[in-house]
């Protein structure tokens, strides 16, 4: 039976405990001085014989490896996967058949376009790559937080990445799609339109990796013991629901805490608030793929959940942070070709390209073919083959026969029998060609489906995103080209975008909107919970200690994470003279780092905060970003100073004179709603 302990023991063998040793060179020679080089006299030249200096500086000079071209900025965590029900009817993959197994896993989340030094909260696709360390080998499900992609054929991937990356003449802008080359690519490639609708939606601005869906993107194939195939789409759904930031907020977070999503993941795991996701599958029997009005092999298309429901089959819990970012998160080498018996590929042309590209990339980044021996990449399954030598070889093969067939080594390793990986025996025939199938030719109907499925506030954000992005494009004809494509998606959308970017609005639609929608695509239809939400409690000297205690303890009871913020760090004095501990000083944080705000009572405290421009703006900005606001007693006076409406649960503002469980319950519900987009933001000061 697979156990996370197997992987844990394997990783433990490579860990170094710095507390139990003295400093040495890489070869174990004890070192008693590492602050001064060996010189001729105190002010003389450094000697070449200083082997410790040379080793130390040489290692430093070589300690960086090439960063990933895409998905360079990431965060990762270990966990385990548990199966709800056996999928033995569809696959022979053991970890998808044995409900008693707990399969160790590693997940790497990432942005796509930016460098390692870019911010977490840029508008971008997010990678969601999962490695299952199964007894049959590693299975890597390398996906994104969006179920489709920009292009249909992998031969276009270099073109797309070159277009979205900083422009070559000035290396600007970093980690942003708001520039000419990306939108020039888009206006000349209509296949991008479905993905661009997702990119301009709030899906590109996740609140947290813990509140982000994941998708395998491609159609894969499950194969059972009898050799029967079933097409499959993989989905990850977060337990906390799918929630996003708003655009103004993301830009400010990038300055206040560029590690916002990384820090959120790390702190959640350290505090025991383990991220959890449900694995779901959409299954389509072989031979039934023709019943759709799109091609299952087209990576720019989804299977609407109304046509094939997502079947929950298991859960993933992330419960341990890495010990060393470089060794684990940076050196983890995912590859779509890492599959186990019972999981196979399809002829999706983007998938086929990725099968080559990932392995080729790892060979460059990690210095040769032995990257699989790095601890984070090692399978828990036994490894035995004739692949030897090469850079960074850490195994010590003892066989004298490193070839097959052999008699000197007793014929070992022997070929696997019934456990061997077997490719699905798909019949293939056809002429060599460089043409797309006609079934890939519809580039607009699912973009329209996405638009039709959005709530009003989501549509407003999509229009604003197109206007912002195209507003950064210098070439007017590129703006016109994008608007022309949007008119194929929805006429009202095209007109709204055109009016915002100085383009002549189209007079009439190219095609009528088909009217179909898929409710699962809207973030209004997701789980809502106050659990793990970060709540700011604003206090100063003279605060009502009872209010603080009731709110802080009540929020903790519903799973939220309250923090007491004051103009200074340490403690503040309550109205009755007690000391109230401060979590952080207000000048060191910002409203954009919190999900909601509460102002306890206490006349002196509220008066001090009302005279503090930073505290007033903290509340104003939280309201502007649609967050839940709470006030107790005199706390309502700070709301007035910040021009926040006094009460109104429909606006997510909860005010009371009674610090009790009823307030916590009502405020918790407002926090769980995530954002209150029905506010009249025009009434809020800029």
Automatic annotation (TrEMBL):
EC identifiers of the protein: 1.11.1.6
Catalytic activity: 2 H2O2 = O2 + 2 H2O
Alphabetically ordered keywords of this record: Heme, Hydrogen peroxide, Iron, Metal-binding, Oxidoreductase, Peroxidase
Stretches assigned to the Catalase core domain: 24-412
SUPFAM superfamilies xrefs: Class I glutamine amidotransferase-like (SSF52317), Heme-dependent catalase-like (SSF56634)
Gene3D superfamilies documented for this protein: 1.20.1370.20, 3.40.50.880, Catalase core domain
Region described as Disordered: spans on this chain: 506-528
Active site as annotated: 71, 144
Alphabetical list of Pfam families matching this protein: Catalase, Catalase-rel, Catalase_C
Covalent cross-link 3'-histidyl-3-tyrosine (His-Tyr) as placed by the record, residue numbers: 335-358
Top-level class of the enzyme under EC nomenclature: oxidoreductase
Entry cofactors: heme
Family assignment from sequence similarity: Belongs to the catalase family. HPII subfamily.
Protein name: Catalase
